[in-house]
Amino acid sequence: MKKLEFVLIALIVFSSGCQKQNDSRIHVREGVASDTLGSNIVTRPVVHAFSALIGEGIEVTQAVTRRNDAGFLELYVNGHNKSFGTKRFRYRVEWLDEDGLMIETKTSVWLPFSATGKSPFTIKAVAPRPQAVNFRMDTRKWE
Amino acid sequence: MKATVLYLIVMVCILATGCAQETTMIDTMHDEGKAVMALDYRDFDLAASKMVQSMLGSGALKKQEGGRYVVATGRIINDTTQRIDTDQLMVKIETEILNSGQAVMTSAIGSGSDELLLETRELRDSEEFDPDTVAKRQTLIAPELTISGKIFQRNIRYDRNKQQVEYYFQLKLSDVKSGLRFWQDETLIGKRGSSRSVSW
Q1: B29-33, long-range: CB within 8 Å, 24+ apart, which pairs?
Q2: Domain A58-141 falls in which CATH fold?
Q3: Cα(B103)–Cα(B139) distance, rounded to whole angstroms?
Q4: Using CA atoms, how far apart are residues B72 and A9, in angstroms rounded to an integer?
Q5: Right CATH number for B42-59+69-123+143-200 from 2.60.40, 3.40.50, 1.20.120, 3.90.1690?
Q6: Residues B39, B189 contacting (CB under 8 angstroms)
Q7: Which of A69, B9, B39, B109 is deepest in the core (most CB within 10 A)?
Q8: Which helix (H) or strand (E) holds A38?
Q9: Mean pLDDT of A57-81
Q10: Cα A5 from chain centroid (whole Å)
Q11: How close is the nearest chain A Cα to the Cα of B90, in Å?
Q12: Does B36 touch chain A (CB under 8 A)?
């Protein structure tokens, strides 16, 4: 009996490993895509529990700034939600001038954001002053 | 007897003081207070921040021929069940437009107008004022763009015990001469809570 369970799990593991990866620009969600270890009805509880145990969360992969046509600095923060659940959090962007000093603006407030589980996300922010050359960003839990 | 009465009075006073709710200042930078069904300052901060970023990011305020646009604030309709001073939203947006360096706001006309601008012009015939210090005719600058909008609310019964309240903040920026709309956006703030809590 135990042998049968082992074979079943091994089959799932191998079949997940052989799965063809989608184009990274397209996110095919659980229930639509083929099963993976994280979505399979047998292995899901273990994988989700493990993910929660090690405390998987948001990972920021890249922060890109560019100056738009109107002369304002735009910030794009790209990241990935590594956990299985939706991560809701708040973020605040503060803008810095060329001397590294903070520019006080009404837009530097805590804004809510929500990232789908196991998905990439992008946060966009626009500096309201042309003097902004850099930024700093803070996050906190969404109560 | 007197001592007992006095003792009781003192005890009642002490207990009543202990039960009184303490007044605390809100830490607006890190407010961890619970969300409320009505609109509070955090909602206006959020709406204003998103609107300003959208407006400035769109480039609608950048004058092609150089210089700065003159912008007037038009009517902001409050179509919610709450008594809202729409300046709570517009002052933040006007401040950021001014500070962006791309436009100036006018106080001569619109909902942000200053009565004294016209009142001081009535002093032209007064003998009490030096005529050189009174504003001349045809010196006011007409607005080139106007901002107008609406805040409205929808109450939806979610289930037996819960209600959903949706607040929509809509703003549009129009060119006075051509009537063309240069920019518009909407921010939605949705809240779900007990149907017993009121949103006004």
Answers
A1: B30/A140, B32/A143
A2: Immunoglobulin-like (2.60.40)
A3: 18
A4: 68
A5: 3.40.50
A6: yes
A7: B39
A8: none
A9: 94
A10: 34
A11: 11
A12: no
Closest Cα in chain A, distance from residue B73 (Å):
18
* pLDDT > 70 fraction of chain B, expressed in percent and rounded: 93
Which residue has tokens 């929660």? A52
Report domain extents, chain B.
Answer: 42-59+69-123+143-200
> Scanning every residue of chain A, which has its alpha carbon at the shortest distance from the alpha carbon of B62?
A70
Nearest Cα residue in chain B from A113: B46
Task: Please write the tens of the pLDDT for every residue from A117-128.
Answer: 888 999 999 999
- The β-bridge partners of A39 are none
Whether residue B96 and residue A126 make contact (CB cut-off 8 A), yes or no, is no
**Position B14 confidence tier, pLDDT thresholds 50, 70, 90:** low
**B179 and chain A: CB distance < 8 Å anywhere?**
no
Phi, psi for B21 (deg, rounded to 5): -75, 130
Q: Are strands A87-96 and A111-115 parallel, antiparallel or unpaired?
A: antiparallel
The domain segmentation of chain A, as residue ranges, is 2-53, 58-141
Residue A16 has pLDDT above 70, yes or no: no
Q: Which residue of A has its CA nearest to B95?
A: A106
Instruction: Flag if A106 and B48 touch (Cβ within 8 Å).
Output: yes
State the pLDDT at residue A6.
63
- Say what angle helices B41-58 and B87-100 make with each other, to 10 degrees: 40
CB contact under 8 A, B49 and A130: no
Asked if B102 and A70 come within 8 Å (Cβ–Cβ), the reply is: yes
- How far, in Å, are A30, A94, B33, B61 from residue A35 at the CA level? 7, 42, 41, 49
Yes or no, beta carbons of A130 and B101 under 8 Å apart: yes
pLDDT for A11 equals 54
